[in-house]
Amino acid sequence: MRELVLESLDAGTPLRIAGKSTWIDAGRPVGAERIASLAAHTGVVEYTPGDLTITVKSGTTLGDIERISSENGQWLPLDPFGSRDGTIGATIATGSFGPLAHAFGRARDLVLGLEFVTGQGKVVRGGGKVVKNVAGFDLVRLMTGSWGTLGIITEVTLRLYSLPQSSVTVSLGAADSETALRQRIDSILSSPGIPLAVELLDADTASMIGLSDKQQILVKLGGNTAAVDAQRAALQSLGGIREVEPEVSDRLRNIEEKIMGDAPDGEPPVVLRLSSLPQHVAHIWNSARNIMSGIAGGAMHATPSLGIVRCIIPASTPLDTIERMVSWPQTTVIFERLRSSAWRILSPTVVNNALAQRVKRAFDPDNLLNPGILGPLE
Q1: Is the terminal CB of the chain with fewer CB neighbours within 10 Å at N or C?
Q2: Rounded distance, CA 196 to CA 206, Å?
Q3: What CA–CA distance (Å, rounded) separates 185 from 336?
């Protein structure tokens, strides 16, 4: 990969960085003439089950990591939305995560170290291969979520966990009113034990993944048998609980593909995240739901403990409707997917501050890597 970067640098040819290209349409349009593919850059570099760490090449898929680690009774609790055919490099580069972040943290919390190639062709290593490694500047967190604009990730060291001895997924009813919903969320989050995931679903999402067409909260429990039984008993005391098949988690993970498949034009949906303090989730949720109720074929879900509401909107939705979704104060809006023509209107850039631009120029002064994916540099 270093040779490719140096060659492109000499030729002045920008690079579009790609893994398996399962999410290549995400982010702003990239002005690149050549693709730097890591699809064949796969395999385990080092795996030490006793240390619960694994180092893999960045083109290794999430499915392969799951298969390899499960053979030793371990797993990587990172469940970004989309197929397990996605690569670990792309997952870290985009900072992607899913409902399991409730218990295990986001992508940046599971990466111990990584190797990457800068836009100048320099090979850099950040972090390490042990859990306790905090010396120096945290390049791992800098690279996580940088969308390939600072370097091409070539190797990743990950923190693994032991597979739960027992697991169960349950659903609890969730009232529509803001006050009742807030109280319901608080009662679940404050119940004994730490669930693996707590995800709020609107009625449309619940129906799409095979549940009843009512607003509800999915709770995934895991651990030893005694712990799971105790947590389930605590939730049962709240009322309105029923056990559901574990496959609903996978269906939720692939909700975008279902919406895209159901769309007449087959276009990828608009996906955006509304983020605020956890105590504001019920308010943001109901405000967004009032708008989403007028959009056929859309879906909403939220991770209350992280303060995140995620909306999946059919591509045909008028732009002014999407603008209404992102107009609330004290709310950070992150677009995951958006029509090419809408980026310059709704989110022209996220690198318009002096610090972001100085960091970009320190690692990629010629703007060789994924130019424009985070917006134009001034």
Answers
A1: C
A2: 19
A3: 26
Stated pTM of the model:
0.92
Domain with CATH 3.30.70.2190 in the chain: 166-248
CATH number, domain 2-162: 3.30.465.10
Positions of CATH 3.30.465.10 in the chain: 2-162
Type of residue found at 165: Q
Q: Which residues have a Cβ under 8 Å from the Cβ of 3 and sit 6 or more positions away?
A: none
What residues form DSSP beta bridges with 47?
54
C-beta of residue 212 within 8 angstroms of C-beta of residue 218:
no
Q: Classify residue 116 as exposed, middle or buried by CB count within 10 Å of its CB (0-12, 13-18, 19+).
A: buried
Write out pLDDT tens, residues 165-175.
999 999 999 99
DSSP 50: G
Q: Per-residue pLDDT for 336 more than 90? A: yes
| DSSP helix/strand/coil, 202 | coil
CATH 3.30.70.2190 fits 166-248, yes or no: yes
CATH 3.30.70 describes domain 255-339: yes
Phi, psi angle pair for 217, to nearest 5°: -120, 125
Nearest Cα to Cα of residue 201 among 132, 146, 249 = 249
The sign of the CA dihedral 345, 346, 350, 352 is positive
Residues 6+ apart with CB under 8 A from 225: 165, 166
What would the mean pLDDT of 221-225 be, rounded to a whole number? 95
Residue type, 289: R
- Which residue, chain included where needed, has tokens 């993944």? 209
How would you class 191 by CB atoms within 10 Å of its CB: exposed for 0-12, middle for 13-18, buried for 19 or more?
A: middle
